[in-house]
Every structure is written in structure tokens, then in C-alpha cells.
Amino acid sequence: xxxxxxxxxxxxxxxxxxxxxxxxxxxxxxxxxxxxxxxxxxxxxxxxxxxxxxxxxxxxxxxxxxxxxxxxxxxxxxxxxxxxxxxxxxxxxxxxxxxxxxxxxxxxxxxxxxxxxxxxxxxxxxxxxxxxxxxxxxxxxxxxxxxxxxxxxxxxxxxxxxxxxxxxxxxxxxxxxxxxxxxxxxxxxxxxxxxxxxxxxxxxxxxxxxxxxxxxxxxxxxxxxxxxxxxxxxxxxxxxxxxxxxxxxxxxxxxxxxxxxxxxxxxxxxxxxxxxxxxxxxxxxxxxxxxxxxxxxxxxxxxxxxxxxxxxxxxxxxxxxxxxxxxxxxxxxxxxxxxxxxxxxxxxxxxxxxxxxxxxxxxxxxxxxxxxx
Length: 373
Description:
- The protein is mainly beta.
- Helices cover 9% and strands 39% of the residues.
């Protein structure tokens, strides 16, 4: 009888322990009441036209937090996917614990062209979805948003070349001959420049956009001086001619800049001398020892110089041996441009082979050449 009592006590103890273990189990995860994230920005069925001038602009994609209707859940990770249904393709844009992500127009445009195969200026219909996850190794708890539809148009990663503008006037060497006006160099964003010789007898200069035509054209108003002032735009022949830009009445070489985007101009006197210096030359970065070049014509120079080879060596051109940095360096288009600051970032790389070179510079055409001797 005692043995039977001991067995009964043991069975009851096991049952009690099992009951306590069941009481300690927490609530189980159920997705029936869970709320998936929702993309709140941008708006559904919106359209976006990407453009080169806005390449640095940012597209913000924002969503609401997922709600699993439980406390003490692990951190939620969100994965944003961009789909191109017409080609059955997709790419992941972000994997984050934040509730938004940002992508520049330039980066987005690259994905459209390189990953999805769109052509420049082509429109595509894309779907964005964000998925909330509790773990990295299971998808059973994933919550995915409803699709967000956006129509996106790409742009050409290489912008079309800017149309040139031209300098003319009775203070220039071409006078008022609009068929022979001097082409200016496009620097960036509607800014054009030229280094030209102005005479002492002429009174005016202007800018035109097409050889042989007087419109479109740019002049100034009564506030404009020979040094600087506003540009006044004449779009068509039906609009009266703007006032000419006053000439300095001192013969010499001048850097002339026309900013057609901001409608301002500047005219700055420059020296008739030119020097070459930089790590590729024997003068190095000692500008007081910069090597003088020989003036061979109207703003053309040349010299024979020994240059060190390779991109690790660079050089530029300065107008005075007292200058602290080269002033004529490379523009984005590979032509020479005049800069007063930041010149070291755009110096000309040395030739492939070390040796003696004839270096020629044409400041009107903004060109240079190296001829190995």
C-alpha cells in the first residue's frame, strides 16, 4: 500500500510540473492581427521625370512602422524592393531599421539604365514594396506593404553639349561681322568665357548665339560698365536691341565671361605674358621660377620644355611669376579655362613619356598641345 501511495505522489508531481511549464509559455506570434508597413511617400500612381541638372536631388521613400500587436518583439528590419513588372526584374534599394530611405536622382537614373535596361528619356512603370522582417533566417513573420506604383522617366547621363555663343563688337578684332564672331568656351551651367584682344578705339561688345544672325543676342542696360554688369537678353528680331557692353578703351588682352543662366557678365584685364610650371617641369611648384613662354601671335604662346611623364606629374599655365597657383587649367570638356581658386584640382597631367616637348597654347581657342621633340 505504501508503494502505491509513492507512485501516485510521483504521478501527481509530474503532472504539476508539466502544468507549471505550460503556464510559463508566452503568447505565440499571430499575423492575423498584425499590420504591414505602408509606403506613405511618394504618393501612389505619381510620376517622376529625372533630369541631368537635378542629378543631385534626392527621392525620399518613407513608410509606416509594422505593428505585430506584441510587446518585446525583436528589432524590425525593413527591405525596400523596386520592381519592373514589364521585364520581370527587381532590385533591392535598402535594408534598414529606419522608416525611410533616400536615393539621388543620379543613382536612381543609373539603376534604371544599367539594371533595368531603359534608354535615356524613356518612361517606365515601376512598383515599390517594403517588407518588415523579425529575423534574417525566416520569412514566416514577414509583412509586406501593398504595392506603390510610380512612373519614372530617365535622362541621358551625358548631357548634350551646350550651344556656343559668340563675341563681337567694334572693340574686337572681328568688328560687327556676325559671320566671323569669336566662339566662346562653355565652362558650365550656361557660363561662357573667352580671352580676347580688345582695341583702344572701339566702344562696344555684344554676344550672339548664332553666326550670321542678330538674335538671340545679349547686351546690357545703362547700369553696365566695361568691368561688369547685367546681361539683357534679346530672344528674337521683334525685340529691340539691348545696349552694347562698354569697351575698356585700353588696348590689351581681356578675360570676358558671359553667364547666360544668371544674366551677368565680367571683363577682366589679363597680362600678355604666360608661364608654365608644376611638378612635371623643372620649376616644380616654385612659381617664382616658372618658365616663360614666347608669345607667337594674338594670345598664342609656345616654349620648349622638359616634362616628366605620367599622371603623377602635372602642370598648368600662369600669367605672372608672383601668382600662388596656376590660372589656366583644364575645364570639364578638356579645354583650358581660367580659374583663380582650386586650380590644383584641375591641373594638366604630364605626358605618357618623359622628355623634351614643344608646348603650344592658344588662349583664344582655349587649347594646348604637346609635341615630343
